[in-house]
Structures are given as C-alpha cells and as structure tokens.
Design goal:
The relative contact order is 0.07. This protein is α/β, with parallel strands linked by helices and 813 residues long.
C-alpha cells in the first residue's frame, strides 16, 4: 500500500510514501505521519490518500512513524483543502501551512548525542568546555541549546571542534512543540461534594476563620471556572501555601498537578432571550423562506438595523439541530466587541479563534472544536480551517470587506467564497450580511443565485444620520491660525458634540504622522531604500518608517540631494490628527485606533472597554473604526479626506470608497437617531459622495454594474494577477515578457501588461505584473490555470530565471 502525503512545503505535487505492513490497518487519511525527505530531513505530513499505485518516477521511501491516533483533518476538510489549492493555484503544502496551527506542524530539531570515548582524555578549548560538560551530564542536547550555552560568537567553532574529535554524532528527530500546560489544581475531597456535608464543613470551620475564608473562596472559584488552580486560590485570599496544606492534611482538599486549559472562559448560562422588532421579524421570516429555496442568502440591512440579532437566532436554531455554526468577522477588533454580546446568548459553547492567540491556545481551540465542545466559533477568515464535525450554518458578517481576501502568503483565498464552498460540502446554509453588499453579491442576487432579504430601517425606527459634504477648500481660511486638518464646520460640530457629552469618531485612512517628507527646493522625497514608497514619519518614535518592509530611519533635517533645509510634511496620518485634535480641544480625552497603536494582545479590548465606559471623547482611526463598532454615545463622525479614498488606481475604487464612507457614517446616532456625519472633500461634486449622502445603494449599484459590464470587469469576467519578483529588475521584466508572449494566442482571455506594480519594489524585490481577464466558463478557467502553471515551470527552467518568483492571485481584491 502507498500513501500520498502533504508536506508543509511549497512542492508542485504531493509525494507518495510506502505504508509498512504493521501500519496498514491503522492509517487513515487526515492522520499525521513522520516521513523523510532527502537524506536526513524529517517532516510531519498529512495523509491525503491511501492507494495501491506505486510511483514510477522515483524510489518510494517508507513512512517512519505514526504521530496521531486519529485524523486531525477530516475527509471533508481534506476535500476543502484540495479545492482551495486547485481554485487559488496554491501548492498543497501552502494550504497545509495556512490551515494547521504551528504546534500541529512538527519540526525537525537537530540533536547532538555524546559518543565520546571514556578511555580518551580530550583537550578542549575554553569555549567548548561548557558544552562538553552539558553533553557528558545530559548525554544529548539540541543545536539550539548548544547555541544558548556557547553563545552565537563561538557557536560554529565549538560545533566543529566537537565533530572533528568525533565526540558527538548528529541525530535528526521530530519533536512536538505543543506541550500541555500543567498546574497544581485544588479539589474538594469526595466526601464533601454532597451539599449537606459541605454545609456541615462550613459550620465546623467557623472557629478557624482563615480556613473558612479559603474554603469559601474555593467554592466561589469552582462555581465560576469549574477548575480551581492553586495560584488562583492563593491570589484570591492572599493565603500562603501552608494554609492550603493544612486543609489538605485534614483531608478536605487534594492538590494534584494536572493538564489545564490556557483558555479561561466565564461560565455563562447563555439564556438571554431574543426579542425582534416588527422589521426584524419580517426579515427573519423572509430569511427562512429564502434559505428554504437557496443555499445562500444576502441579508442587506442598513447600519444599526440589528442584523446581529438575526444571526444569533439562526445560530440558536443550528445548535438546537445538533450542528455547529461559524460566524466570520472581517477584523479581530470586531471580534473583540461582538464576543461579549454573543457570550450572553451562547455561554461556554462559544469559541473564538484568531491570530492574537498564542500557538498553544490555538491548538486547544482546535481540539475543542474537533470534540464538539465549541458549537459556535466566531473569528476572521482563519476560523474556516478548524476541524468541524457537522456544520449547519456559516454567517459572513460585513461580507463586502476586503479583509476576507488573503493577500500573502499563499493560498490567496477569499474567505467569503471559500465559506460558500465549505458549506456545500456539509450541506449547510450561508448568510452573507452587510449594509453595503459587494457588487458581486448583489449581482448574484440579480441572477437568482442568492436569496435576498432587506432591512431598510434602523433598530426600533432610529433615524439614519444626517450627512453633510464640507468643501475642504475652507481649510485655507484657517491655516493661518495654525489649524491644518479640521474645517471650521467640523470643529464646531465636534465642540457641540462634546458640550452635549457625546463621543466623536474621526476617520482618516492613513496611519502615522506625515506620510511624506518633501524638499520644497528640489522636490526630493524621503524614500525607503528597500521599497519604492515614501517613508512615513511617526512622531511617537521620532522615526521615518516603511509600512511595507518595516525599515526605520532617522528623521531628515537636511535634503541629501540639494543640501536645503526647507523640508515640509505633505498629507497627514492618524498620529498627526490625534495631536492637532488634542491641541484644539485640550480638555477632551483623545484616543487612536490604528495598526501602530493596537499592536498589543489586549490593546483592542482595553480601548473598546474605555469607549464603552465613556473614558474616551474623541476616537481617531483608520479602517478599524469602520467595521461594526457599536457605541450608543457616538453622535458625530468626521471623514477628513474623502478625496484620498476616491483617487486610488483600481477599478473597485468607487465601490470601496462608497462602502467605507457609508460604514463609518453608520457609527453615528445608533441609539437616539441624532447622528451627524461631516465629509471633508475638495471634489464635492463626485457622484459617490452624493450616493453616500443619500444612503443610496440602489443608484450606486446601477451605475457601477453598468461600468463593470462596459469595461468587462468582474462579475462579468474572472481576473488573474501574475506577479514576477526579482532583485534585478531586468530579470523580472524579462520573465513577465515571456509569460505575456505565451498568452498572446490563448483563446477567451484579454491580457494587460506586463508592467510595473503600483509599488514597484518591496524588500529589494522588483515587481512586474500581468493582469488577465478571462471568460467565466469553467472550461476556459481550468485550461488557463493548467497553462499558467506549465508556463511558470518553463520560465523557471530557463537559464538565469530559476530565482525569479512567480505568484498567481485568482480573483484579486
């Protein structure tokens, strides 16, 4: 028997290994096994298939060992992996790398084993002596441990010394990097678990108040968390270990070291009831009717219409039917806020999964989903990879959001589209929710592929915010007063909101302090030496920083090109807005929400908590503030630079600008209907601004779909982007030209390029691109994908092109 095994590497094909006789009755697809690649590299691979077809092209190596007692990936999820890899043109190993938590991907750890001859007296250098002592005592150490003992400076010399004297031998072994957390756990003796016996014990300890306090603390923690760690118990009552030992000696407590969860969830019964408004009740009935007829329904509800309550009700129905539900959210920040609401309804059956969890925590979540402990999982696109048993419902909230598209690394999949395929594998239903649906989803409704449900009014009839377009030219009249970013109208509106003890959100889609430093004498701009972008000044660190490669450089005071000192800052980012707002409103409490300020694991949670408790008056932020934040006291939203949203070179620019502005405006007046939105723009006649002002999704869609049809853009065609990267630009250009030439006679496609990318150099790699518009029929798409993969191999096999990186992006966003 033979097994096709996926390795966590970017290999063009799955490798086949032999199955030893003793394993043939044990192995199943989805299990992890230990295999060898090359002479000495060990990997943990996933069995994709078991068969009797021996490969002809290479000698088959045997599987070395079985890692799991059961499959860690189900048959349906393996099928999901295959579809992702095929549709998005990714290698099976790339899909595996994305899907599995790091600690389920075992690593080869080189070990040094002591084999020194006891009859020989070795002469060691001073640097090698500590290493030999460790080896003699422990018999075996890892390479990383040797580096720690010796230090990086002498590491290579000491390793060579050990090998030359044949005192060590190198072993390559696989190690599981996941280790369960072990802690001392306190338990109540079995004889006191009965309520009457426990009450008698309380009475008995009345004359020992410290012991009584400890027992009461124990019962309180046990009721909330189920498990009582010794550390938690000591922290609660500030008691020394001796007091716990006293109760242990009396036979009241037992203390054992056990495996414990890294994840602590509050014990909530999840019994909160749902009460629909008439509009929600109508939408709920229409949603049921639509999902009876179609597998996918688009729920189009204006901002603040209460879509989340409909999600919750449908999830409850799914759980009652004994199935699992997934709630996809575009951002971790949105996950943070909505989880507190969901816990009130679902309690401990709710799990959360995102990248801010540690690797160990992710493995524990993985296991809880596999065992069915978590019946509902909320999280961004990575939540799709978890090992569900029986999915009944997938909800994609804010389905229009570009964050659902994985940009790098491969697989470059779109979570919304992948969720629809995954649901089909399980026979599940899909709800796509948004106040500003994507053009593609609205088109699928028009083509009768999706059911459609609309909620046109806000929750309990609250009015939509009033939107005003402010001519940014009025900034010229206040710049002499030192104000550069806020028009007089916006300043007056902020002051009015603060006087009425309301909160304000200011939106600018640029982070940093000033995104560009310019010499007014010669026009020189501070550029990143690795990327073809300008450096952004961050005042908090007093550094110039590249947002592509992370390079940091000192601030420039003298132009290196002409020697001039007249350097000015052009445009502005959230950091500068925060500073200016604080100067204009010195008594206001100002906070910032962007990638730079939200780097900490708990930064988002802490900021949202401050907003909830009214400890922040003005929030300045990037796209993070757009996505689903729901605070009752926000009455004013300011969009500071609408022109920057409308000037990006992309066929989706109008769609994205409309969605961003409509979404951020929806943060205002969500409870009392007294919201205002002020949009600063120079081109105030732009049609998108008028559609946003009137909340007119229908007119926007009618105009946009006509434009897409006329110029043959999605949803009328499929797009492919091919990127060519190399440190020498001529190589990237030549490789792109070879691909473009091969596509000249391919039927059913239109080719644009090759040409430089918008950002032509990133991390010292020059990037050139080809864009392909293809007919939507399956035959053309499949033939094109096969052709592109073959041509990539042809190009990379040519002399001088082996180091060119060729990347495919299907349905780029």
């Amino acid at each position: 028997m033979f097994a096709d095994i996926i390795l966590p590497l970017n290999l063009p094909q799955i490798l086949t290994y032999g199955v030893p006789l003793e394993m043939q009755d044990i192995l199943q697809p989805g299990m992890r096994v230990e295999v060898q690649l090359g002479n000495n590299k060990q990997y943990a691979g996933i069995i994709e298939n078991i068969h009797n077809n021996k490969p002809e092209a290479y000698m088959v190596k045997p599987i070395r060992g079985i890692i799991d007692e059961y499959p860690v990936v189900s048959a349906r999820h393996l099928q999901f992996w295959r579809w992702i890899g095929h549709y998005y043109m990714a290698a099976p190993g790339e899909v595996m790398q994305a899907a599995l938590p790091a600690h389920l991907k075992l690593m080869g750890e080189t070990r040094l084993e002591w084999v020194g001859d006891q009859s020989i007296t070795y002469e060691w250098s001073n640097e090698a002596f500590p290493a030999t002592e460790a080896l003699i005592i422990r018999k075996e150490i890892t390479i990383s441990e040797l580096r720690t003992i010796i230090g990086p400076r002498h590491f290579a010399a000491v390793l060579n010394e050990l090998l030359e004297k044949e005192a060590v031998q190198i072993n390559e072994a696989l190690e599981a990097s996941f280790k369960p957390r072990r802690e001392k756990v306190v338990s109540l003796a079995a004889e006191y678990t009965d309520e009457q016996a426990l009450m008698a014990l309380f009475k008995k300890l009345e004359k020992a108040p410290k012991q009584l306090e400890l027992l009461m603390a124990y019962t309180e923690i046990a009721m909330k968390q189920g498990i009582v760690k010794q550390s938690d118990l000591q922290d609660r009552v500030k008691a020394p270990y001796a007091l716990i030992k006293t109760l242990s000696d009396k036979g009241i407590f037992t203390v054992e070291e056990k495996n414990v969860d890294r994840l602590i969830y509050k014990t909530i019964k999840g019994s909160k009831e749902i009460v629909f408004t008439p509009a929600q009740q109508t939408a709920y009935e229409e949603l049921n009717t639509g999902l009876n007829d179609k597998n996918v329904a688009l729920l189009h509800g204006v901002t603040g219409s209460g879509k989340t309550l409909l999600y919750i009700h449908k999830i409850k129905e799914c759980i009652a039917a004994g199935k699992q539900a997934i709630l996809l959210l575009p951002e971790i920040g949105l996950t943070t806020q909505i989880i507190s609401r969901l816990h009130a309804y679902f309690g401990e059956v709710l799990g959360v999964y995102h990248s801010h969890f540690s690797n160990n925590e992710r493995v524990e979540i993985w296991e809880k989903v596999r065992k069915g402990t978590f019946q509902v999982v909320a999280g961004p696109r990575s939540a799709l990879w978890l090992p569900y048993n029986d999915i009944g419902l997938i909800i994609v909230d804010e389905e229009h959001d570009g964050s659902y598209k994985q940009k790098d690394p491969a697989p470059r999949f779109h979570a919304r589209d992948a969720a629809i395929y995954l649901a089909a594998l399980y026979g599940a239903k899909v709800i796509l929710g948004s106040a500003t649906p994507s053009i593609e989803s609205l088109y699928n409704v028009q083509q009768k592929k999706y059911a459609y449900v609309s909620i046109k009014d806000r929750y309990q009839g609250v009015k939509m915010p009033v939107i005003e377009i402010i001519n940014a030219a009025s900034l010229n009249t206040v710049r002499q007063l030192g104000v550069k970013l806020l028009t007089p109208e916006l300043q007056a509106a902020i002051l009015d909101a603060l006087q009425h003890r309301k909160q304000v959100i200011l939106f600018q889609n640029r982070r940093g302090y000033t995104p560009m430093q310019l010499c007014t004498i010669c026009g020189w701009v501070a550029q990143c030496k690795n990327c073809s972008v300008s450096l952004t000044y961050h005042k908090s660190t007093d550094k110039l920083q590249c947002h592509y490669c992370g390079l940091k450089a000192a601030v420039v005071h003298t132009c290196p090109q002409c020697g001039g000192t007249k350097l000015v800052s052009k445009t502005f980012g959230t950091e500068k807005i925060e500073e200016e707002v604080q100067q204009i409103f010195p008594n206001a409490r100002v906070a910032r929400m962007d990638v730079d300020s939200m780097r900490g694991k708990h930064s988002m949670t802490e900021l949202l908590d401050q907003l909830e408790k009214r400890k922040v008056d003005i929030l300045v932020g990037t796209q993070m503030v757009v996505k689903g934040l729901d605070f009752a006291s926000v009455s004013l939203v300011g969009i500071l630079s609408a022109d920057s949203l409308l000037g990006y070179p992309d066929f989706r620019v109008n769609e994205r600008a409309f969605q961003l502005m409509e979404q951020v405006s929806g943060r205002a007046g969500r409870v009392d209907g007294k919201g205002r939105v002020l949009i600063q723009a120079y081109n105030i006649a732009h049609p998108v601004l008028q559609w946003v002002k009137n909340h007119d999704v229908h007119t926007f869609y009618t105009n946009e779909i006509h434009y897409r049809d006329h110029f043959l853009y999605p949803p009328f065609t499929r797009l492919f982007k091919i990127s060519f990267k190399h440190k020498d630009e001529p190589k990237a250009i030549a490789a792109a030209a070879l691909m473009a030439e091969s596509l000249l006679n391919f039927p059913g496609i239109a080719v644009q390029g090759p040409g430089p990318a918008i950002v032509t150099r990133v991390r010292n790699q020059f990037i050139h691109e080809i864009w392909i518009k293809s007919q939507r029929d399956t035959r053309t798409l499949e033939t094109l994908k096969t052709f592109l993969k073959e041509q990539r191999q042809v190009i990379l096999s040519k002399r001088g092109f082996s180091n060119v990186t060729v990347l495919f992006d299907v349905d780029p966003v």
